[in-house]
């Protein structure tokens, strides 16, 4: 395979490792833990894996060695830069325990375990993928691993391959399912440990124990580079307003991080919209006011960042989407049989009055997007809804009305963009390359410790990588009970943007100036080589969160 000069250089990069993992490693067991809330209910659901101690790995003068261990690995859900390094770290960690250890990769996500599709990951394969983006080494998938029948089917192949430990690399839902799987195997006496690893570009798998999910750093740096380029173009031509939607599902961490990196004129944070109970018209008016104020200074250009989950946080939309989800769940076939040009009227007729009025007021494209196929959980796929176009159109309409009233005298030419897939498989930044490799090595240490129901954890992430602290967090410790599809379920709490947190506070303190003046930052591409302040910087979010 032909490789670029950078690809060749990156394949030789040695991720920096926490000092504690370099030589012999000893396991330090902490105090017993509790779940973040609903302790009684969670303890009851996880009798074998609840209350376990936190673990920390420390350097030891005794060499780490043991008997050969066969491990299995699954990549679950959306791609995130660095996944290949988790697998490389796991592979190297298992080989460090014993050179005859083996690693099997289940293909295309959790489905590979259930369907018994796998490959053995040999040194040649692993070397080909070190420090690369993507999940293509074994592929990923969104099959949910939650039924006992799937667990039993998986156990057949785990036993056949003599796999003693399964590492599931995924987001909050996949790690929740990993905890359920760990509990189940323990309860039936199956000799398989289950270990999770925190993945997702969305940045919403984080808490007191997990400082960040991997992939967030690289993806946001890629988006910030491109937004910066757009801002420079926009500041040069001075004639367009760019409406940029950013991936991230419900949480606005990606939009906030990009705003901190590029200082756009406007960034909408869904969590704030919800907290202030803003309507769509409030959001549109806010953007139009910024456009009008800049136009009054002769600046008919700017940038607006929009988180992909925004409309789900606007109460009226939330109600409309909930009713649509419910309606389509029960009348899918009937609805799909209606001719395309009659579907809009058909839907409007079947909704309650308030939702019907909102639905009828939407541009045709957005109305259609709201009725597209649901995801495997029956929810609308927010990444398919063109919120950026919706907002650009509505701002244009408002400004046209203000023009008539003499309130707006400028020009408004919007362009729209959506950045998401561009960043999910990017070559991992040094931060993600190092963090992921350390997560994989830590997972191998957890396997060697014989524990199950843990998530691999690497902390102290704003310090140099050599000072990072590796350990394991009992997954039940991060759980609470939430209503999902009408039933109370134990789940890992999803982290939305903390409106009391330092990253949001910094944004709030500066946004009025960024709106009025042109304070754009042009971050440029990810740097892999050079001074640590150039190439090893963690995200702004993490830096602000950990600032003393
Ligand atoms: P995960 O939550 O599985 O990490 O996926 C994140 C994400 O990239 C979201 O930001 C986005 O909404 C979604 O995946 C898109 O899903 P798909 O890859 O199925 O189009």
TrEMBL record:
Mg(2+) binds at residue 172. GO terms for cellular component: cytosol. The active site is at 202 (proton acceptor). It catalyses: beta-D-fructose 6-phosphate + diphosphate = beta-D-fructose 1,6-bisphosphate + phosphate + H(+). The keyword Magnesium applies. It is an enzyme of class 2 (transferase). Substrate binds at residues 200-202, 239-240, 247-249, 308, 421-424. Its cofactor is Mg(2+). SUPFAM superfamilies: Phosphofructokinase (SSF53784). Its main location: cytoplasm. Residues 72-315 form the Phosphofructokinase domain. It is found in: Cytoplasm. Keywords: Cytoplasm, Glycolysis, Kinase, Magnesium, Metal-binding, Transferase. GO terms for molecular function: 6-phosphofructokinase activity; ATP binding; diphosphate-fructose-6-phosphate 1-phosphotransferase activity; metal ion binding. Transmembrane segments: none annotated. Non-allosteric. Pathway: Carbohydrate degradation; glycolysis; D-glyceraldehyde 3-phosphate and glycerone phosphate from D-glucose: step 3/4. The record marks 173 as: Important for catalytic activity and substrate specificity. Its EC number is 2.7.1.90. The record marks 199 as: Important for catalytic activity. HAMAP family: Phosphofructokinase_II_Long (MF_01980). Belongs to the phosphofructokinase type A (PFKA) family. PPi-dependent PFK group II subfamily. Clade 'Long' sub-subfamily. This is Pyrophosphate--fructose 6-phosphate 1-phosphotransferase.
């Amino acid at each position: 395979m032909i490789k670029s000069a950078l690809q060749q250089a990156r394949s030789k990069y040695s991720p920096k490792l926490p000092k504690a993992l370099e030589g012999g490693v000893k396991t330090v067991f902490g105090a017993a833990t509790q779940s973040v809330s609903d302790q009684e209910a969670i303890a009851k659901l996880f009798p074998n894996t609840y209350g376990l101690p936190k673990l920390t790995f420390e350097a030891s003068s005794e060499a780490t060695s043991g008997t050969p261990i066969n491990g299995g690995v699954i990549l679950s859900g959306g791609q995130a830069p660095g996944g290949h390094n988790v697998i490389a770290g796991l592979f190297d960690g298992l080989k460090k325990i014993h050179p005859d250890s083996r690693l099997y990769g289940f293909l295309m996500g959790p489905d590979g375990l259930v369907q018994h599709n796998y490959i053995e990951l040999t040194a040649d394969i692993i070397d080909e993928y070190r420090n690369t983006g993507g999940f293509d080494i074994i592929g990923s998938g969104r099959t949910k691993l939650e039924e006992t029948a799937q667990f039993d089917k998986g156990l057949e192949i785990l036993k056949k391959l003599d796999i003693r430990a399964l590492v599931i690399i995924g987001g909050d839902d996949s790690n929740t399912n990993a905890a359920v799987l760990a509990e189940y195997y323990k309860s039936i006496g199956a000799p398989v440990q289950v270990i999770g690893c925190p993945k997702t570009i969305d940045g919403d798998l984080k808490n007191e124990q997990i400082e960040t999910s991997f992939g967030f750093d690289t993806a946001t740096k890629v988006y910030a580079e491109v937004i910066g380029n757009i801002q420079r173009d926009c500041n040069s031509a001075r004639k367009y307003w760019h409406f940029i939607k950013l991936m991230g599902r419900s949480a606005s961490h990606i939009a906030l991080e990009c705003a901190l990196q590029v200082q756009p004129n406007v960034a909408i944070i869904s969590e704030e919209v919800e907290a202030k109970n803003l309507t769509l018209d409030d959001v549109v008016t806010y953007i139009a006011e910024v456009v009008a104020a800049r136009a009054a200074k002769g600046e008919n250009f700017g940038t607006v960042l929009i988180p992909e989950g925004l409309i789900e946080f606007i109460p009226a939309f939330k109600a409309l989407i909930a009713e649509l989800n419910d309606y389509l769940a029960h009348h899918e076939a009937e609805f799909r049989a209606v001719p395309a040009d009659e579907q809009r009227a058909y839907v409007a007729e079947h909704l309650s009055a308030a939702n019907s009025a909102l639905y009828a007021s939407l541009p045709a494209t957005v109305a259609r997007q709201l009725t597209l196929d649901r995801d495997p959980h029956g929810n609308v796929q927010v990444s398919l809804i063109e919120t950026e176009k919706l907002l650009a159109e509505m701002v244009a309409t408002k400004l046209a009305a203000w023009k008539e009233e003499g309130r707006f005298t400028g020009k408004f030419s919007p362009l729209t963009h959506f950045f998401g897939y561009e960043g999910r498989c990017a070559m991992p930044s040094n931060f993600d390359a190092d963090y992921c490799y350390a997560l994989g090595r830590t997972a191998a240490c957890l396997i060697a410790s014989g524990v199950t129901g843990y998530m691999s954890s690497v902390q102290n992430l704003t310090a140099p990588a050599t000072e990072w602290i590796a350990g394991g967090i009992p997954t039940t410790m991060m759980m609470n009970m939430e209503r999902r599809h009408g039933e109370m379920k134990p789940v890992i709490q999803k982290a939305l943007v903390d409106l009391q947190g330092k990253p949001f506070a910094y944004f709030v303190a500066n946004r009025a100036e960024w709106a009025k003046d042109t304070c754009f930052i042009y971050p440029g591409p990810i740097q892999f080589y050079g001074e640590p302040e150039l190439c090893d910087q963690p995200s702004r979010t993490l830096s602000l969160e950990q600032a003393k």
